[in-house]
Design brief:
- It contains 12 helices and 12 strands.
- It has 2 domains: 233 residues, Vaccinia Virus protein VP39 (Rossmann fold); 56 residues.
- The radius of gyration is 21 Å and the shape is elongated.
- It is 37% helix and 17% strand.
- It has 347 residues and is of the alpha/beta class.
- 48% of the residues are buried.
Length: 347
Amino acid sequence: MTDLESDLPDESTADAEATDDSTRDDSMGDDSASDEPQESVYRSPSNPPRQTASYLSRRLAAAGLRPVSHFGQNFLVDLNLIDLIARSAELRPNDVVLEIGTGVGSLTTRLSDNAGAVLSVEIDHNLHQLASEELGGRPNVKLLQGDALKNKNTLQPEIMEHIRDAMSRIGDSARFMLVSNLPYNVATPIVSNLLHELPPPDRMVVTIQKELADRMCAKPRTKDYSALSVWIQSLCEPQIVRILPPKAFWPRPKVDSAILRLDLLAGQRDKFVDLKYFHETVRALFFHRRKFLRSVVISAMKGRLDKSAVDDVLRQLGHGETARAEELSVEQIQALAESLRQAERAA
């Protein structure tokens, strides 16, 4: 069973759109819950978790709980889809898996069956306690309770500390994976921020809003092509595994979802002299995506490069006066960002 939006913040996925807002109350009726992740105490479950709407309804009701729109809790109610997510990750015993949004622990169970170690983070204090009951007796699972994001641009440092520690115990063969049913309104910062981390995930398999998956996979000259498209495709190969209709969830959202697989491109990250500079440049180029490229670059480089230097860079790369960022390939944008970096250093 799965738990798509177990740690979702502000509003239900029924109305949610992808957003970078990560400000959330993590206490679902318990004001003592902390924002900082805390380790869990486990108890052994008598049976593996199930996942149907009726079972989940009874399970939550028995604990005095129900899906709360404040967290946007939408649970997958198709075990075949949960298994598909786990299979798509192609996990091995040397893998360390991060899951954001434990829910009641259904996907977590499948991940722990195949991975060397699983770190699962749940913002909802009460669901965290429920998952602890379900996941007891699994020594390769660690549960943390709290917000996975310190802010919209930063993960909680403790998360990556746990990941690196688990990888060091496994050894040089260890791989880092993100496998999650991500909350819609934290999906972008979670995926984007993880690509900045060391190490970044070797693979990510995530359930997200279909609209967001389309943007991550978009090609130049299409309406969905954006800074996010370029950032993701500069480091990963994205593939939509399956489109999920609203009826796959309980409660039902009003939007389609998608299982998206992102494979880290081997050696690609090492090609960037300054990854942060590249990321910031890409965001600046698409801030006014339909404006002429020259105007956008001059504005972005104001106080750092004069107009003549910008013109020299664009001319050397063969970009005419009517070029726009949304028309450039990922490789062309990479070349432009690096040329601007070099020109700025030489100025």
